[in-house]
Amino acid sequence: EPEVTQTPSHQVTQMGQEVILRCVPISNHLYFYWYRQILGQKVEFLVSFYNNEISEKSEIFDDQFSVERPDGSNFTLKIRSTKLEDSAMYFCASSEGQGSRGYTFGSGTRLTVV
Amino acid sequence: AQTVTQSQPEMSVQEAETVTLSCTYDTSENNYYLFWYKQPPSRQMILVIRQEAYKQQNATENRFSVNFQKAAKSFSLKISDSQLGDTAMYFCAYNTGGFKTIFGAGTRLFVKA
Q1: Smallest Cβ distance to A56: which of B91, B100, B106?
Q2: Which residue among B45, B97, B101 sits closest to A45, beta carbon to beta carbon?
Q3: Per-residue confidence of chain A (114 residues) as pLDDT tens digits?
Q4: Which residue of A111, B72, B76, B86 has the fewest C-beta atoms within 10 A of its own C-beta?
Q5: Distance of alpha carbon B53 from alpha carbon B49, whole angstroms
Q6: What is d(CA B59, CA A58) in angstroms, rounded to the nearest whole number?
């Protein structure tokens, strides 16, 4: 069964530092996403990415955030100047088509900002 | 704005029994897609079942089935013959066919031996 792989599984960073969360989507999928889940709260959409550009982003996804597909396999989320409130579980997902068929999610990266 | 509401934060069920998780949503769209995702303690979300709004027939996947009531904007998940491995957080989710999926707050289900 193909998987979405995320690394690292847990990242601790100092407030104000930059972090890069990495994801390897399923190889034949064309759409990529980042979601986050603050502890005990809803899963929130951050951004979708298709054809090497952002296709949609939420209000949360401001200038502090950026995404990139640096090569044919990786999909990264960069968070600049991290804040305490950025502490959350970050999930990468991919899909063959747009969201109508659902996603395959990765296991997530737990980001802790101290 | 589209919203998804799961009114049951926690539920429990005896092994082998049947349990129903509730979900309601709000939308002005006529065509859309609804999902139930399972998030076991290992935290990876897995797609359990999917329903297309233009299909009247309720989706089923083995022990999992839905009761889709379009007029009432209700989309409940029924788990039959519950197993210990069904213990997880269950999220109801909505998508119009576009890029963004909206999730409910989740229902934590405990299956007791």
Answers
A1: B100
A2: B101
A3: 789 999 999 999 999 999 999 999 999 999 999 999 998 788 999 999 999 999 999 999 999 999 999 887 899 999 999 999 999 999 999 999 888 889 999 999 999 999
A4: B72
A5: 13
A6: 30
